[in-house]
Amino acid sequence: MTALRACLYLRDLQTGGDLARAQEQGIDWCTRQGYDLASVIIDNPDGDRWQTVFRLLLDGLADVIVVVRRNHIPVSVPRIEVVEDARRQLDGGTAFGRPSSRRPQLLR
């Protein structure tokens, strides 16, 4: 099986954070996931290079985008939520807390 090709995307937010440390964390993540690191893109605070990252995906040069911190994703990117991920974060492993006896009605 061929390893997924990752694009590590970092934004230099100039908020006192250590960009080199974030890059190190991203590379470490890619290694642990078994990804081939296809590119590292360091963007400015405005996120002007996000389209370059997206183009890598569209052109088939990368399979996955890796960001170290949520605030590295430009605000112009539509919000994407994965229910499965949210479920793991909540106590009890359910997305909505304790199971309810009331279920939504299925419309036909």
Description:
The structure is a single chain. This protein is an alpha/beta fold. The protein has a domain of 68 residues. It is 29% helix and 18% strand. The chain is built from 3 helices and 3 strands, in the order E-H-E-H-E-H. It has a 3-stranded parallel sheet with strand order 2-1-3, with helices on both faces. Helix 1 links the parallel strand 1 and strand 2. The chain is globular. The termini are far apart. About 7% of the residues have low confidence.
Helix-strand blueprint:
Elements: E1 5-11, H1 19-33, E2 36-43, H2 50-58, E3 64-67, H3 83-89
Parallel strand pairs: 1-2, 1-3
Largest β sheet strand count, sense and barrel closure:
3 strands, parallel
Gross morphology: globular
Radius of gyration: 18 Å
- Which strand order do you get reading across the main beta sheet? 2-1-3
Strand content: 15-25%
Terminus-to-terminus distance: 42 Å
Specify the structural class: alpha/beta
Count of helical segments?
Answer: 3
- Average pLDDT, to the nearest integer? 81
- The topology string of helices and strands comes to EHEHEH
Helix content: 25-40%
How many beta-strand segments? 3
Poorly predicted regions are 93-100
Quick tags:
alpha/beta; three-stranded parallel β-sheet
Short description:
With 108 residues, this protein is α/β, with parallel strands linked by helices. It has helices spanning 19-33, 50-58, 83-89, and strands at 5-11, 36-43, 64-67. The protein is 29% helix and 18% strand.
